[in-house]
Amino acid sequence: GVEGCDGALFVGYHAKIGTLHAVLDHTYYSSMVNCVRLNGTEVGEPEINAVLAGHFNIPVVFLSGDEAVCHDAKSFIGEYLETAIVKKAVGRTAADCLHPEKSHQLIKEGVKKSISCLPSAKPLYINLPVTFEIEFFTTQMADRASIYPFAERVNGRTVKVQGKTVLEGYQAFMSILGLARI
Questions:
Q1: Domains in the chain, please, with CATH?
Q2: Who contacts 156 (Cβ-Cβ below 8 Å, separation ≥6)?
Q3: pTM for the complete prediction?
Q4: Alpha-carbon span 24 to 30, nearest angstrom
Q5: What percentage of the chain reaches a pLDDT higher than 70?
Q6: Percent of residues in the chain assigned helix, strand, coil, to nearest 5
Q7: Sorting pLDDT into bands at 50, 70 and 90, what band is 31?
Q8: Who is most buried in 18, 27, 101, 140, counting CB within 10 A?
Q9: d(Cα 21, Cα 120) in Å, to the nearest integer?
């Protein structure tokens, strides 16, 4: 559980699918999901997880990954987010990586700094109800995902789910992803 957590640290994250100059950009399933929108904004896993942490009143205070994900996460989560850029994309499947010892040192320093800022950190909240729109790669995936009565088919490849709370919306989102994979 998350009870008793003062802050969340995201280590080893990647950018959302379609991000320019990002290493292994994807959102959940690289062979299935073309785009995820949260309340109309295109998001990746760091943004979704930050909003989910906010549901539990937990601020995200640190993130490490490539240059692209650090930039995007800071833009969405907030300038207070401490980041450690440990690699820079050369292409989707190639990166200019820091030496592991240097990466470890940057992460360690970033985590220390982020923990010292915990008293002023704020959880990330979004407007409710929450809406997830998932654009799949194929109509067949959307066919399967839209079987649930709470899922709304938006178009050939897009399915939408809502939740009164972030957790409820997230659970619906993960459920349709699971069904679409079958």
A1: 1-28+58-124 (3.40.50.10780)
A2: 139, 142
A3: 0.92
A4: 9
A5: 99
A6: 35, 25, 35
A7: confident
A8: 27
A9: 32
- CB neighbour list of residue 119: distance below 8 Å, 6 or more residues apart: none
Per-residue pLDDT tens digits for 131-182: 999 999 999 999 999 999 999 999 999 999 999 999 999 999 999 999 888 7
Q: 161, 176 in Cβ contact below 8 A?
A: yes
| Dihedral sign from CA coordinates of 22, 28, 30, 33 | negative
Would you call 14 a catalytic residue per the annotation? no
Q: Which residues have CB under 8 Å from 120's CB, separation 6+?
A: 80
Catalytic residue chosen out of the listed positions 26, 71, 99, 104: 26
Partners of 13 in the β-ladder = 65
